[in-house]
Amino acid sequence: MTFATYPSLNGKIVFVTGGASGIGEQIVRAFAGQKAKVGFIDRDEPRGRDLVEELTGEGAEVRCEICDLRDIGALKAGFAALVAALGPATVLANNAARDDRHDWTELTADYWDERMNTNLRHMFFAIQAVAPGMIDAGGGSIINIGSNSWWEAGGGFPAYATAKAAVHGLTRTMARDLGDHRIRVNTVVPGWIMTERQKELWATPEKLEQHRQRQCLPDLIDPVYVARMVVFLASDDAAMCTANNYMVEAGSI
User: Fold this and answer.
1) Cβ atoms within 10 Å, residue 116
2) Which one from 111, 160, 225, 246 is the annotated catalytic residue?
3) pLDDT tens digits, residue range 4-55?
4) Fold of 9-192+222-248
5) Which residue has the higher pLDDT, 152 or 52?
């Protein structure tokens, strides 16, 4: 595939959460390919270090800070370190999440809270940490990664689906609160994306075939396509796009 280059992203400072693997890794790679300066946060130190070494060896400017995003103090410290290294970001990709399966009949209050902390809470506090720099810069773009799981009425992970549904509310309200500062806030909505984790844990031949039948397009979705939508929304080409959902789900809803 041949993808677009966006001159407006050349030299831009971009922060990504959960950037060491899966969709987040492809987002980091996509922005590095646009010659942006990329800082990402993740708790997987070996994978984060390897990605930085690889991309730096290719001439990109990439930094990683290791922290558990459920710890808001550590999250804010991680962003502060990235600002010190790269400067304030004008693009934030709120990507980090885990779609662990769980049985609603056995779900405890503590596990529910942990799922909210893993899949939702850090997104708001990332915005709170990064948006002031965007205000000072005169604008920016925030891209929250949602999920089509709740649009499809998917079962097997009610806490995850609830958190991802709430991402859309966060996007809409923050688009209003930040719009006067020319900061755009959007949600990218992936379908079932074929990350290595999905392939290892849940992508059986039977389930894949069922999902193919649901999609309008017959092809399984590589994470690079989610990254391409994020890159577009970060660019000046999307200057009038805010408060909306951008689907990358092959027509499965």
Assistant:
1) 17
2) 160
3) 999 999 999 999 999 999 999 999 999 999 999 999 999 999 999 999 999 9
4) Rossmann fold (3.40.50)
5) 52
pTM over 0.70: yes
Q: Which of 133, 186, 190 has its CA nearest to residue 14?
A: 133
Output b/e per residue, 181-193; b: 16+ Cβ within 10 A: bebbbbbbbbbbb
Instruction: List, as one string, the DSSP characters of the chain.
Output: ------GGGTT-EEEEES-SSHHHHHHHHHHHHTT-EEEEEES-HHHHHHHHHHHHHTT-EEEEEE--TTSHHHHHHHHHHHHHHH---SEEEE---------TTT--HHHHHHHHIIIIIHHHHHHHHHHHHHHHHT-EEEEEE--STTTTT--S-HHHHHHHHHHHHHHHHHHHHHHTTTEEEEEEEE-SB--HHHHHHT--HHHHHHHHHHSSS-SPBPHHHHHHHHHHHHSGGGTT--S-EEEESTT--
- What tokens does 131 get? 């948006």
Question: Residue ranges of the domains in the chain?
Answer: 9-192+222-248
160 is known as an active-site residue:
yes
Q: What is the pLDDT of residues 195-229, one digit of tens each?
A: 888 788 778 999 889 888 889 999 999 999 999 99
